[in-house]
Amino acid sequence: MSASRTSLSLLRTLLPYKTQTRAVTYMPRPGDGSPRPVTLIPGDGIGPLVTNAVEQVMEAMHAPVYFEKYQVHGDMKQIPQEVIDSIRKNKVCLKGGLRTPKGGGVSSLNLHLRRELDLYASLVDCCNLPGLPTRHENVDIVVIRENTEGEYSGLEHEVVPGVVESLKVITKFCSERIAKYAFEYAYLNNRKKVTAVHKANIMKLADGLFLESCREVAARYPTIKYDEIIVDNCCMQLVSKPEQFDVMITPNLYGNLVANTAAGIAGGTGVMPGGNVGAEHAVFEQGASAGNVGKKKMVEQKTANPLALLLSSAMMLRHLQFPAFANRLEEAVKNVILEGKYRTKDLGGDSTTQQVVDAVIAKIE
């Protein structure tokens, strides 16, 4: 009897500490479970491989989304209007990489898409993943990049033969809205610090205006620490002490460089998710642009890493207000990484894309 009472007392003590495995505060609105259409652009190179991986996983977990697929390739002169119309209608797009021709005056379709839909904020989530060893620990960086102006404005012309002028455009409006987005992201996600990356010591007017806008917005968020760093020092600090950074806000060109560097430090571009968002639309893709098209051999051998786009798809599911599906997908991907049995070459393994996809599907609860 005494032992029984002791056991009962112990049980009562332990019950309050039982780990909560589900959210008890999420109450969907009527109709939230209706399947949502998503525009799908497989893209070039490894794009069809990794977007097909997402399709398989979404079907396996019975996610409430369905895809409207369109073929778009980087060598096209422009994105077909039917694709733009589909994204405008659906509000959400998932895309593989689009190959951008080097030189020759051919404009980037990625830039065209961002401008057409005013996807002014790019977000790349760079953090250490359990089971994936890296040189640095405790890396948890979110790079938020202005997506529509700066050196990527596409304003170039030949002044005289042999002399080309490329304009960098920075505006108060665009600088302020990306700063608002970065601080709002930090506030909503309980992040502690926002760092502005710049080169205002040289580009005093352009980057000076960017910093001025960031400072004005920072003053409205007294609970979030704000600091600034020159871009060249930023690169050095990233490779030596990346754990010091939290949320980073950058103009367009710097953000491209910083995001790819941070992704490489945290585990590689093959596992870093990201997306581009505006007031009305969102496009989700592999977070870091390096390697998002891949090499011909990788396509032929079907060994592309699908994990970055799968994690981007989890971001997409949260954006669509399907948090339980997002959590299941993210946990499955993280468990596959932690187990370490199925990894593509970039992560030190020899698995095919399909083997990794099958492993993720097997982990989905």
Which H/E pattern describes the elements? HEHEHEHEEEEHEHEHEHEEHHHH
Task: Indicate the proportion of strand residues.
Answer: 15-25%
Strands ordered across the widest β-sheet: 2-1-3-12-11-4-5-10-8-9
Shape: globular
**What is the CATH architecture assignment of the largest domain?**
3-Layer(aba) Sandwich
**Stretches with pLDDT under 50, minimum 5 residues:** none
Radius of gyration: 22 Å
| The CATH homology group name of the largest domain | Isopropylmalate Dehydrogenase
* CATH topology label of the largest domain: Isopropylmalate Dehydrogenase
What's the number of extended β-strand segments?
12
Structural class: alpha/beta
Distance between the termini: 41 Å
Helix content: 40-55%
Protein name: Isopropylmalate dehydrogenase-like domain-containing protein
Pfam families: Iso_dh (PF00180)
Family: Belongs to the isocitrate and isopropylmalate dehydrogenases family.
Function: Performs an essential role in the oxidative function of the citric acid cycle.
